Amino acid sequence: MSQKCVKAYVTGHVQGVGFRYHTAHEALKLSLTGYAKNLPDGRVEVLACGREESVDALIAWLDQGPPTASVNHVKHEDTEWRSVDGFAIQ
């Protein structure tokens, strides 16, 4: 069972629509740790750590996001493994 961490940047109409809360809900369903936070430029940054299959599932979910959002693009990159407690909304 391979573990990994991915940092993703989501662009579009993703702030003020509950995107971080929905992302945290999806991440917790997948037993992932990390965070979702708004960036000053209007994007949402997501760190997801856990089983490789679960991380990939969350990245796929980010391409659509919740019904209230309009995702234009998701850029993601593998990042160094880190132990994070829970999934935070920042």
TrEMBL record:
- The active site consists of R20, N38
The superkingdom of the source organism is Bacteria
InterPro entries named in the record: Acylphosphatase, Acylphosphatase-like_dom, Acylphosphatase-like_dom_sf, Acylphosphatase_CS
Q: Which ranges carry the Acylphosphatase-like domain?
A: 5-90
| GO function terms (MF aspect) | acylphosphatase activity
> Coiled-coil segments, which residues?
none
Instruction: From the UniProt record, list the reaction(s) this protein catalyses.
Output: an acyl phosphate + H2O = a carboxylate + phosphate + H(+)
Q: What is this protein called?
A: Acylphosphatase
Q: What species does this protein belong to?
A: Salinivibrio proteolyticus
Q: Which gene encodes it?
A: yccX
